[in-house]
Amino acid sequence: MNKMIYLSGISLLFVMPVAAQQVTADTAAIMKEHTLSNVTITSRKATMRSLKGALNGKDISRDELFKAACCNLGESFVTNPSVDVNYTDATTGAKQVKMLGLSGTYVQMLTENLPNFRGAALPYGLGYVPGNWMKSMQVSKGNSSVKNGYEAMTGQINVEYVKPEDEKGLSLNLYGSTMGKVEANADGNIHINGNKNLSTEILAHFENNWNHSDGNGDGFQDDPQVKQFNLQNRWFWKAGNYMLHAGLSLLKEDRTNGQVAGALPLYGGTAPYRIDIGTQRYEAYMKHAVILNSAHGTNIALLANASLHKQDALYGIKQYDVNEKSAYASLVFETDFTPKHNLSAGLSLNHDYLRQSLTLPLGAVAANYGNLYPMERGLESETTPGAYVQYTYNLNNHLVAMAGLRLDHSNVYGTFFTPRFHLKWMPTHLLTVRLSAGKGYRSPHALAENNYLMASGRRLIIDNLKQEAAWNYGSSLSFVIPIGKQALKLNADYYYTHFLEQAIIDYDSNPEELHITNLNGKSYSHTFQIDASYLFFNSLELTAAYRYNLVKTTYGQQLLWKPLQSRYKALLTASYKTPLALWQFDATAVLNGGGRMPQPYTMASGNLSWQPNFKAYPQLNAQVTRYFKHFSVYVGGENLTNYKQHNPIIGFSNPWANSFEPTMVYGPVQGAMAYIGIRINLGQRL
């Protein structure tokens, strides 16, 4: 089956130019026979680099998101050279984003500029945002504005949902893949009594993955079975100078994985090794805004959200339950003294409460497997009030300087300052220069944020962790070079992240332990990236990018390359849309560089547990979309090179031993996959 998918994908790439030429010829014939009285030309840029603001960021529209299946937020970065999404292990299906060569814990996740998916929601949060719910996404590198808090260290990702006040309509999406996954999405809004000042919408999502396949024959499912229900209701109200956005959402997810057949000894009986994770999540948000003076952009806003995240998880014989309550509120005042001078100031309050329970049934027997934990993390509670001020000087968008300072006080870690500075200089319309420097902090919740580690048979040790702190410095050059009728867009940037305090996962020091401990030495990341894009013939857009990561951390007494991290990434994307926009062809080719594996150990057989390094590997994704008046059909494939990590589960023959290790994942754990879907749009909704 995988070979057929692979050949189909390769054939698809060869068919694309032929099909495009055929459609172009047909279109030309039609144009000769018809005269149009009115012509409307619409130009859409799927990804736009912001040249106005001081932050180094990109605005990603739905057009860019829909160049791939984009089932959820975790699958929305296929064509993005700055963001990687990787599996954390080969059993739970947990994913994390990586920016500037560092894990997603240092990327601040926002939904409509409100912090979200923190703590226990972090390992699986990328799957909680269906792709068809997203209207756009903003991705920025390095430290961001102090408005949104102190947590962003390497970047910020903000998701904008479709809005209740958008043109009313209904959208449906159905999706199915060869991996046994089906998905259905719906979003619709109404303007009550025909009045755009009062609108509501419903967003609904269902997915089910019933796949039981075991492609590599290790006795474990290649992909977890996931059944998810996700529902959200959003409201918008405008009365004079007052505006309100508010909403409620609920999510229920069941995630299971483990051995597909057979039984291994357990407590003198027989039972397969299973992982069962049940999640219930509830969210509420509200955003009040009052415009005091529209001429000067003077307004005051109250923003707040709260979440309840309950998760019950069984990893073999380890039972981990967590009940997390999070709340965030921010009172913001903003004004433009003059067109050149802007001031923003505000107060914020952040609260996290985690009640955790970790149990090992028949503990005396469990000791034989080396799975005892020296401490139980129990209750974690932190309340952090804060205040910020930010000043921006803007000289006709040619020179923009933004300086901000936060003062926060944690009842756990005390008082801390967060300074940040961004500068943009545009000496000509062909060149933009940006510089940034700033500090970031975050409070680690070791067990909640890394609960996938409990799938490992190793003894898990968690120290008393300090608050993480890091400086980030960045610079970028953006060129717009006229070539023919179009412009070549060239961008180069460099970022350096230096940790003062860091919670690290030490895989290296002891082959029988996973140790989450405080940094004792150096830890830093150097990242250089260059990318270029050009639009040929007003219809074919090519983007090429190369990124190099130099990431090192002290493990034990040694400064080592960060394990399971590719040292470079090369990306090439091509997107072609026929003249009448009836067909669209998209392809993305990626070469992920090699890197270091954690320190291997010698097994009883005399062989190494795994190789000390992993090699570079390629990936290829492609999609064809056919547009009709009210719907579109898309067919595509992912990982068409069929590369997958060989035996990602170490010690799969005995999952009850402390040598069982499914977290040594650096690349894809699934082979080639094909999918088909349909998007239906009724009304004017985009």
TrEMBL record:
<dbReference type="GO" id="GO:0015344">
    <property type="term" value="F:siderophore uptake transmembrane transporter activity"/>
</dbReference>
<dbReference type="InterPro" id="IPR039426">
    <property type="entry name" value="TonB-dep_rcpt-like"/>
</dbReference>
<keyword id="KW-0812">Transmembrane</keyword>
<comment type="similarity">
    <text>Belongs to the TonB-dependent receptor family.</text>
</comment>
<feature type="domain" description="TonB-dependent receptor-like beta-barrel">
    <location>
        <begin position="219"/>
        <end position="640"/>
    </location>
</feature>
<feature type="signal peptide">
    <location>
        <begin position="1"/>
        <end position="20"/>
    </location>
</feature>
<keyword id="KW-0472">Membrane</keyword>
<dbReference type="GO" id="GO:0044718">
    <property type="term" value="P:siderophore transmembrane transport"/>
</dbReference>
<keyword id="KW-0798">TonB box</keyword>
<dbReference type="InterPro" id="IPR000531">
    <property type="entry name" value="Beta-barrel_TonB"/>
</dbReference>
<keyword id="KW-0813">Transport</keyword>
<keyword id="KW-1134">Transmembrane beta strand</keyword>
<dbReference type="Pfam" id="PF00593">
    <property type="entry name" value="TonB_dep_Rec_b-barrel"/>
</dbReference>
<protein>
    <submittedName>
        <fullName>Outer membrane receptor protein involved in Fe transport</fullName>
    </submittedName>
</protein>
<feature type="domain" description="TonB-dependent receptor plug">
    <location>
        <begin position="60"/>
        <end position="155"/>
    </location>
</feature>
<dbReference type="Pfam" id="PF07715">
    <property type="entry name" value="Plug"/>
</dbReference>
<dbReference type="InterPro" id="IPR037066">
    <property type="entry name" value="Plug_dom_sf"/>
</dbReference>
<keyword id="KW-0998">Cell outer membrane</keyword>
<keyword id="KW-0732">Signal</keyword>
<dbReference type="InterPro" id="IPR036942">
    <property type="entry name" value="Beta-barrel_TonB_sf"/>
</dbReference>
<dbReference type="InterPro" id="IPR012910">
    <property type="entry name" value="Plug_dom"/>
</dbReference>
<keyword id="KW-0675">Receptor</keyword>
<dbReference type="GO" id="GO:0009279">
    <property type="term" value="C:cell outer membrane"/>
</dbReference>
